Structures are given as structure tokens and as C-alpha cells.
């Protein structure tokens, strides 16, 4: 079975296959021979189990007919659709949030310059900064995983670029608008605010773009828009950054099928609200019914404290019963006894609760 970055699948599951839109696994016995087949609850990658909007599928298929042509390097149609959806902001696009992060770092940071990261959080910020030759400074959060603004401002004082994720991955907590604004007004460098999961919380950071020239808001189509497989990221940026970003970006990075599907997704104004309402209801149920401590979350996942087991031990036990979750041991600055659980389909959440509550 394949290995996902940051989470090693164990030998408890021999191999996976798809059928009827679901994933099944053949469990391995002590001698390595396949046992019974189980349906897998995929709760490890914060995916949206709901299929893409039909408009996204239609427009993506239509664009595929012209796949012999290079895409628009500036993704002008998608940028215009983003303006119609969000308002008169300035946008850049990339291959997933990761692509946007890499290009922003390449645009702003020279080797030897400092990049600050609020931890524990998504590890890719530090990895991408190190690849650019930057010096990475990790700024720990408080014990409840909230951001200590005083410490963050002090740690980011000399940073060319700082990263803050809200709702934070993997802890799920939301940093207030007031705290973000305090940071923006107190640092001299740029702040990259990762809003990959922002649709699932009540905080809107977009108004800050009108007031601060040192802010980038990263967004993605992977979560609320159900387009994870097409790898579409974008960001709100100050106007001055657009031309610099385009010079640093990989040519033709975002393919025409993905761009067209994203435009279709933006045109369906019902898909995201319905998804968000569903996630909130199911998230509440998981938080209330799980017997292990679950942290408050503004995202489409929750983090669970599984002490005295480690995250990997719990992930292995859940996997024995066909439930795939993410051990959080690989997140810098986080203890070894947490797992991250995506909010999946109703049957997936129910299976997770049945299994973990019985352990």
C-alpha cells in the first residue's frame, strides 16, 4: 500500500482498491495472507467526501477538449471569476496551496533571510523556506495552541516572511481578527495567513487586505470546493506583489482543466454553503460523542488527545477496523499523543466513533 507524506500506513492493511466510489482494504494476517475485506473510512487527509459541483465537472471536461493548447499563464479567467466571487481584490494562483506558498517564498525571500513560523502547524512552510535557503524560526504557541501575539511579534521582528495558519492545521483553533491585525501592525515583514479551512469557521479575514500591504491570504479549492485532486490554490495579495509573483512563478503552472473546473465551482453558489453546514453538524457530533478529549475546531477536522496511547498507536488500532486517521507525531512542536480526524461521510464518522469509543 502507498505511503502518505507524514503518515506511514502499517502492515495491518495489505492493499487497497476502489469499487463503486468507495475504498476497500484487504487486511493482512500474521503470515501476510489476506483476510476479510473491509470498507475504509478515509479520515486522514481533510478531504471533502462530497463530489465536486456538477458545474465544475462540466467546465473541466469542456476544457479537456482543448488540452492540446497551453493554458493562460496568468489564469485571467479564473482571476476574474475570483473577483466576481470575493470582490475587487488582487489574486495570484498556483498548483495547490503548496504551489502558492513556494512561489511567495521564492518571490520574497533570499538565501540567509529569516522566515518565522507559528508552531505546531503545517510543516510545509518550514520545508519550503529551507529549500529556498532561508533561516527558519519556529515560534511556539501557547499550551492551548492559541497564538501568543507578543511572542509571535518578537520572534517575527526580523523575519522577511512569517507564516500563521488559521484555522490551524492540525489543532483546528482559530486566531481572532484582532490578534492578526495586531501582528500585521507590529511586524515589518510580510505575513502569509493560511486560510485553507476558513470556509468552515466564522471569521472573515478578507477586510484586512484593504488595510495592510504586508498581508497575503492563502486559499484553496481542495477543501470546501471538493477539488483536492485538481490542485488549485490561490491567494489574495497586495497589488504591488502581483507582478513580482508572476515573474517568480513556474510558467503554465496551473493547467487549463483545473482552472476551468475552479471557475465552474465558483459559479455554483450552493455547493460550499451546503458543505459547510454539513461539516459543522457532523463536527459537533464527533466532538460531543468522542470519549477522548477533542479540541474545539473551526476546520473540517478535529484533533483528539489519545493519551496514554501515542498518535501512531491509536492510528494503528483504528486502522485494524478500517478507519484511517492521521497521527500528529510528525508535526513539529506537538506532543506524540494526538491524532487528526477529518469530518467525513456520516457512516465514516459513525465508524470512527464506534471504534475509538470501544478502545
Descriptors:
359 residues; alpha/beta; Aspartate Aminotransferase, domain 2; seven-stranded mixed β-sheet; 11 helices; 14 strands; disordered N terminus
- Could you name the CATH class of the domain at 54-267? Alpha Beta
Strand fraction equals 15-25%
Number of helices: 11
Output the strand order for the largest sheet. 5-11-10-9-8-6-7
Q: What fold name goes in the CATH topology slot of the domain at 54-267?
A: Aspartate Aminotransferase, domain 2
Q: How many strands?
A: 14
CATH superfamily of the domain at 54-267: Type I PLP-dependent aspartate aminotransferase-like (Major domain)
Radius of gyration, in Å, reads: 21 Å
CATH architecture of the domain at 54-267: 3-Layer(aba) Sandwich
- Average residue pLDDT: 92
Q: What's the SSE pattern? A: EEEEHHEHEHEHEHEEEHHHEHEEH
Give the helix/strand class: alpha/beta
What is the distance, rounded to the nearest whole angstrom, between the alpha carbons of the first and last residues? 25 Å
Give the overall silhouette.
Answer: globular
Describe the sheet with the most strands. Answer: 7 strands, mixed
Question: Stretches where pLDDT falls below 50 for ≥5 residues?
Answer: 1-14, 17-21, 28-32
Amino acid at each position: 500500500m502507498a505511503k502518505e507524506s507524514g503518515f506511514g500506513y502499517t502492515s495491518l492493511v495489505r492493499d487497497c482498491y476502489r469499487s463503486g466510489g468507495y475504498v476497500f482494504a484487504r487486511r493482512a494476517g500474521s503470515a501476510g495472507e489476506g483476510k476479510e475485506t473491509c470498507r475504509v473510512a478515509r479520515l486522514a487527509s481533510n478531504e471533502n467526501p462530497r463530489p465536486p459541483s456538477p458545474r465544475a465537472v462540466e467546465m473541466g471536461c469542456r476544457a479537456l477538449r482543448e488540452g492540446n493548447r497551453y493554458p493562460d499563464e496568468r489564469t485571467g479567467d479564473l482571476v476574474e471569476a475570483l473577483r466576481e466571487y470575493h470582490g475587487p481584490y488582487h489574486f495570484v494562483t498556483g498548483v495547490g496551496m503548496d504551489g502558492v506558498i513556494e512561489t511567495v517564498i521564492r518571490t520574497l525571500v533570499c538565501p540567509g533571510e529569516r522566515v518565522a513560523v507559528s508552531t505546531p502547524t503545517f510543516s510545509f512552510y518550514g520545508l519550503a523556506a529551507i529549500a529556498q535557503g532561508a533561516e527558519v524560526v519556529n515560534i511556539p504557541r501557547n499550551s492551548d495552541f492559541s497564538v501568543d501575539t507578543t511572542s509571535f511579534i518578537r520572534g517575527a521582528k526580523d523575519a522577511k516572511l512569517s507564516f500563521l495558519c488559521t484555522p490551524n492545521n492540525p489543532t483546528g483553533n482559530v486566531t481572532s481578527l484582532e490578534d492578526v491585525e495586531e501582528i500585521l501592525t507590529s511586524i515589518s515583514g510580510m505575513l502569509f495567513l493560511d486560510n485553507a479551512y476558513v470556509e468552515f469557521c466564522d471569521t472573515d479575514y478578507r477586510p484586512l487586505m484593504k488595510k495592510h500591504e504586508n498581508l497575503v491570504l492563502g486559499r484553496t479549492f481542495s477543501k470546501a470546493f471538493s477539488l483536492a485532486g485538481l490542485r488549485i490554490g490561490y491567494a489574495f495579495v497586495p497589488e504591488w506583489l502581483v507582478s513580482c509573483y508572476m515573474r517568480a512563478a513556474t510558467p503554465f503552472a496551473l493547467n487549463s482543466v483545473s482552472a476551468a473546473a475552479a471557475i465552474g465551482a465558483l459559479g455554483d453558489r450552493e455547493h460550499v454553503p451546503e458543505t459547510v453546514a454539513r461539516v459543522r453538524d457532523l463536527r459537533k457530533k464527533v466532538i460531543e460523542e468522542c470519549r477522548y478529549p477533542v479540541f474545539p475546531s473551526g476546520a473540517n477536522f478535529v484533533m483528539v488527545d489519545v493519551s496514554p496511547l501515542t498518535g501512531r498507536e491509536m492510528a494503528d488500532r483504528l486502522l485494524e477496523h478500517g478507519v484511517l486517521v492521521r497521527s500528529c507525531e510528525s508535526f513539529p512542536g506537538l506532543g506524540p499523543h494526538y491524532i487528526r480526524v477529518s469530518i467525513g461521510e456520516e457512516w465514516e464518522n459513525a465508524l470512527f466513533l464506534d471504534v475509538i469509543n470501544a478502545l
